[in-house]
């Protein structure tokens, strides 16, 4: 199991997500993002806005995703 924070995944806080795969980490992060969106948390809304801009550039989004995946793989097990 490995741990990444919301901030490491492009978010706005230090909430930690633990999972056995990068895909599981992404799902936990998405769930947290939805909760923060529903709460209208300004810092998270700003981070989401930045991610939406990145998503407008498929190649940049792909590179960002692959970099985060590599970062996850390089982490030591908890």
Write a compact overview of the structure shown.
The chain has 78 residues and is mainly alpha-helical. The protein has three helices and two strands; from the N terminus they run ββααα.
| Assembly annotation | single chain
Q: Please state roughly what percent of the residues sit in beta strands, choosing from under 5%, 5-15%, 15-25%, 25-35%, 35-45% or over 45%.
A: 5-15%
What is the share of helical residues? 55-70%
Overall mean confidence score, pLDDT: 96
Q: N- to C-terminal separation?
A: 6 Å
Q: Count of helical segments?
A: 3
Main β sheet profile: 2 strands, antiparallel
Major β-sheet strand ordering: 1-2
Principal-axis shape equals globular
Topology pattern, helix = H, strand = E = EEHHH
Any low-confidence stretches, pLDDT <50, length ≥5?
none
- Helix- and strand-based class? mainly alpha
Count of distinct strands: 2
**Structurally, how many domains make up the residues?**
1
Cα gyration radius (Å) = 12 Å
